[in-house]
Amino acid sequence: MKKVGEPAPKARLLKAAAALLAESNGEPVSTRQITQAARVTAPTLYHHFGDKEGLFDAVVAEGFSEYLDAERGLPASGQPIEDLRNHWDNHVQFGLDHPHLYLVMFGNIRPERRPSMVASAEAFLEEVLARAAAAARLVVSPREAARSMLAANIGVTLMLIAEPAAKRNLELSAMTREAVISAVATDSEGDPTTQTEGTPSVVVAAIALNAALQSSHPDQLSSSELKLFLEWLQRISSRSGS
Amino acid sequence: MKKVGEPAPKARLLKAAAALLAESNGEPVSTRQITQAARVTAPTLYHHFGDKEGLFDAVVAEGFSEYLDAERGLPASGQPIEDLRNHWDNHVQFGLDHPHLYLVMFGNIRPERRPSMVASAEAFLEEVLARAAAAARLVVSPREAARSMLAANIGVTLMLIAEPAAKRNLELSAMTREAVISAVATDSEGDPTTQTEGTPSVVVAAIALNAALQSSHPDQLSSSELKLFLEWLQRISSRSGS
DNA sequence: GTAGCACCTATAGCACTGTTATATGAACCA
DNA sequence: TGGTTCATATAACAGTGCTATAGGTGCTAC
Predict the structure, then answer these.
(1) Choosing a second label site near A101 at 20 to 30 A (CA), which of A218, B76, B99, B210?
(2) Is the same domain home to A66 and A172?
(3) Same domain, B158 and B122
(4) In total, how many domains does chain B have?
(5) Are residues A220 and A143 in the same domain?
(6) The domain spanning residue B32 has which CATH number?
(7) Is residue B160 a part of any domain in this protein?
(8) Do residue A149 and residue A113 come from a single domain?
(9) 8 A C-beta contact, residue B184 and residue B138
(10) What is the pLDDT of residues B134-177, one digit of tens each?
């Protein structure tokens, strides 16, 4: 058996590579840095992983199984649509938690490296969608739905990763999520909003808004503000300018 | 002046780099390959571009302006929603035409390298969406709509690039496109498009009015009144719930 | 002219990268 | 004991991005 007090060189290499890859902000990490951090010399790296890329693939595979475990860990709530939301959010969260890993997994697409990774994410999402289909909630095939959802999910996550953490607006995620889900599945409640024939004129828009405000008062304005607002709206609506 | 029979070394470097980058399937391209192909020695590369990355940035910038030119070249049909479809498709097509360039432009995100690129694509899309808003077709602000659309557009394009050209299913693009568009805009052709979570048409009308007011300022309100009015309008336009 | 001056390019080399041929040590089985 | 196999180390290779230095080139000023 091996010593238990210290992990084997192979594990140390994996750990060191993952750590350096996560710290070093996207810039390349050299094999020498890795082997040095793992207190190992070059040949052991090539003995175990064959290649620098082999080592990195192993790191990615590890992170990916972590991702899949997290996905599988999400409980099936019995409400398929709600499950879809959870999986979407979990995907985004994983990307934000491991940005560099995520970029390699989903952003750095070399056409032949990808399948084993993304394909299985796609397959898993397809399972979830199959349950939705079984509940008669899907309007397209689970396969198509999975591809579309995953594509949008990746796009959103990449965009969120790219912008500074402080300025991140998760509303983008929620909004796009609902967009894709509602196109792929039927939500129980339909809301047909009849909209007046859209014309670009200020007056028409003002009239439409005025009419809309009669039935539903927004809570973003206080009552006194709303009163003045409506008065101005009335004035704008009164005469044609544009 | 310079000889006209042959392009200057700087141009030759750009061309050689672009060509090699496009051929060599995503694998790294060395400066020596580039300088040799351009029949130039190393220092001229560093004189003109300072850096290998500087050269690659120049290549990307060139491709990017080509992309933006193509986007700008699309005519405004007068039907804003149809324009959105065209821009989406044009984006995807550009990605499929220049896959390696596209991966660098939108996939290979180094948080600080990105803004100048994606941000301007986002800004342009926002312009198009502003026109849709002016036609009272948007249910969210042009900015939010642009981000969501672009994110989904990128995700779809990356996914299409990643899979073998033969098996590419463009239905994925069309499907996701319609999903995002229908979540962001209302189709006026009497289509019972369901909006998410019962967004009241107040928001639609407010956004439309806001957009209309950008181009024509009514004389019924004083400038100070208008300022406050627009502020309130902005508040109404931003959705409250999730 | 020719001296000066920017600009552009080339020679030769550095430090570093990924990688490997070879050799050494350790563990197991005979 | 000796042999076989696995795991690690020494030392070096070719190739990489990059640059200190120097040599042209064309231009303007005198």
Answers:
(1) B99
(2) yes
(3) yes
(4) 2
(5) no
(6) 1.10.10
(7) yes
(8) yes
(9) yes
(10) 776 788 888 889 999 999 999 999 999 988 888 899 999 999 99
Would residue A196 count as lying in a domain? no
Q: What is the CATH number of the domain that holds A8?
A: 1.10.10.60
Lowest mean pLDDT among A35-39, A208-212, A237-241, B109-113: A237-241
Tell me the backbone φ, ψ of residue A79, rounded to 5 degrees. Answer: -110, 95
pTM: 0.79
Q: Do B213 and A197 touch (CB under 8 A)?
A: no
Give the residue on A whose Cα is nearest the Cα of B235.
A220
Residue B218 inside a domain? The answer is: no
Q: Is B19 within 8 Å of B2 (Cβ atoms)?
A: no
Burial class (CB in 10 A: 0-12, 13-18, 19+), B189: exposed
Judging contacts by C-beta atoms under 8 Å, the chain B residues touching residue A242 are: 212, 215-216, 218
Q: pLDDT-derived band of residue B199, with 50, 70 and 90 as boundaries? A: very low
**Residues B164, B89: one domain?**
yes
Domain assignment present for A195: no
b (16+ CB within 10 A) / e for A80-102: bbebbebbbbbbbebbbebbbbb
In this structure, are residues B214 and B226 in contact, taking their beta carbons and an 8 Å threshold?
no
Average pLDDT of every residue of chain B = 82
Q: What are the structure tokens assigned to A47, written together?
A: 């003995």
Partners of B194 in the beta sheet? Answer: A192
Half-sphere exposure of A163 (CA within 13 A, CB side): 16
Residue A140 in contact with partner chain B when CB distance is under 8 A? yes
Q: How confident is the model at residue A142 (pLDDT cuts 50, 70, 90)?
A: confident
| Domain, as residue range, for B79 | 57-192
Give the rounded distance of the alpha carbon of A160 from its chain centre: 8
Percentage of chain B surpassing pLDDT 70? 81
pLDDT of A36 higher than 90: yes
Same domain, B66 and B177: yes
Indicate if CB(A30) is under 7 A from strand C: yes
Contacts of B229 in chain A (CB under 8 A): 229, 232
Q: How many angstroms separate the first and last alpha carbons of chain A?
A: 85
